[in-house]
Amino acid sequence: MSAHLRILIQRDAFDQTAEYERLTKGRTDIGAIVTFTGLCRDEGGTLSALELEHYPAMAEAQITQIAQDAAQRWPLMDVVVIHRFGVIGIGEPIVLVIATSSHRAAAFAGAEYVMDFLKSRAPFWKKDHRADGQQGQWVEARDEDESALGRWQA
Amino acid sequence: MSLRAVYFAWVRERIGKTDEMLNPPADVTTVGELITWLSAQDDNYAYAFENPAIIRTAINQNHVPHDTPLGGAYEIAFFPPMTGG
Question: Of A7, A54, A71, A120, which alpha carbon lies 20 to 30 A from A110's?
Answer without folding.
Answer: A54
